[in-house]
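Technical annex, item 7. During the second reporting period the consortium partners agreed on a shared format for inverse folding records so that results from different sites could be compared directly. Each record opens with the tokenized structure and is followed by the designed sequence. A conforming record, contributed by the partner at site C, is shown below for reference.
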């Protein structure tokens, strides 16, 4: 059997071979330029583009030339020529997209910068440029459509090959359609890698607004509604209990020649035909309070019925003449009773009447 010294020597030689093979493999991967692009879509249809073009520098002379042309001398002719060339190429693409889509478009805030990254054994010269593309995507009331800005394909806008494309969609939107399908979804970022090919009009995306339900309200609103329920429920129980007591006593009064009899004479309560305690205590305010609440709920139901079963909460406030806070209290009670639904749309609530089964 081989001695321990021979085994150690073989292991060392194998390790050296693997290191050399790895460096050779890495060196082969940087023989061409690489491009990474990010497109941040705005809700108004514009988009912020940020592009990095990585140029491999494989020799000391290439590194020195890059530094002298683009890094050390910010006023160099090479920088000016290249920046001008990028600007012209992008503007030609925008003009083509404008003619194809029929939307006015333009480039704003165009900026170019240069850098060099030295990470042994890989060394890159980097060109970074960014700009805002106005009216990049088509918008309507229901969503955003992306794709008609690439009538000749995305390659006309970006240096090739494209190694990674990221499109960041606005908050509050879902992807209904994507062509070609993205390779990775990272939160609100759709990512395509180099093995994805794009045809004319691609990437094509259809984004739709999300419907925000009441459960997605900010926490402070939920807490506020919960607090109101904690206040209203005990009050409703107290009023209901009081009404039941007086109702029972009036029934006894009717059976006993309109007189109320209690085991304790001092606690007897006498009520006349107007609903007023003969000792001076009025019963009407409690009845009025309940009637008022029930009247408002009935009014809201009738208004929703006239409006086809649903209406904005702000319209209910205007129609009723009540304050926003009072309407919110009444609607919270109606929702708790299962008489209405609240649906969040944009910054407003839609109040929808619950239609009950007639067979129930």
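Designed sequence (site C submission):
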């Amino acid at each position: 059997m081989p001695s321990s010294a021979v085994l150690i020597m073989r292991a060392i030689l194998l390790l050296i071979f693997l290191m050399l093979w790895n460096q050779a493999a890495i060196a082969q991967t940087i023989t061409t330029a690489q491009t990474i692009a990010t497109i941040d879509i705005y809700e108004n249809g514009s988009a912020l583009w940020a592009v990095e073009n990585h140029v491999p520098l494989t020799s000391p002379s290439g590194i020195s030339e890059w530094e002298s042309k683009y890094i050390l001398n910010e006023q160099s002719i090479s920088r000016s020529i290249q920046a001008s060339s990028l600007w012209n190429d992008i503007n030609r693409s925008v003009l083509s997209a404008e003619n194809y889509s029929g939307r006015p478009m333009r480039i704003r805030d165009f900026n170019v910068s240069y850098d060099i990254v030295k990470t042994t054994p890989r060394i890159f010269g980097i060109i970074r440029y960014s700009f805002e593309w106005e009216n990049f995507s088509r918008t309507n009331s229901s969503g955003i459509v992306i794709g008609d800005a690439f009538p000749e394909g995305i390659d006309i806008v970006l240096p090739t090959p494209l190694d990674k494309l990221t499109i960041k969609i606005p908050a509050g939107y879902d992807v209904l359609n994507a062509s070609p399908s993205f390779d990775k979804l990272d939160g609100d970022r759709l990512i395509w890698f180099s093995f994805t090919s794009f045809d004319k009009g691609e990437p094509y995306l259809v984004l739709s607004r999300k419907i925000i339900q009441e459960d997605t309200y900010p926490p402070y609103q939920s807490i506020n509604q919960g607090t109101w329920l904690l206040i209203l429920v005990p009050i409703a129980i107290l009023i209901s209990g009081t009404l039941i007591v007086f109702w029972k006593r009036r029934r006894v009064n009717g059976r006993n020649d309109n007189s109320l009899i209690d085991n304790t004479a001092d606690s007897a309560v006498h009520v006349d035909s107007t609903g007023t305690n003969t000792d001076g205590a009025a019963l009407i305010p409690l009845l009025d309070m309940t009637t008022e609440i029930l009247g408002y709920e009935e009014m809201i139901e009738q208004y929703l019925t006239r409006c086809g079963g649903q209406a904005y909460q702000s319209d209910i406030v205007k129609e009723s003449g009540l304050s926003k806070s009072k309407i919110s209290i009444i609607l919270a009670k109606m929702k708790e009773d299962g008489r209405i639904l609240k649906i969040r749309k944009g910054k407003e609530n839609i109040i929808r009447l619950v239609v009950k089964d007639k067979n129930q």
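The longest strand covers residues 106-119. The longest helix spans residues 219-255. All partners now use this format for quarterly exchanges.
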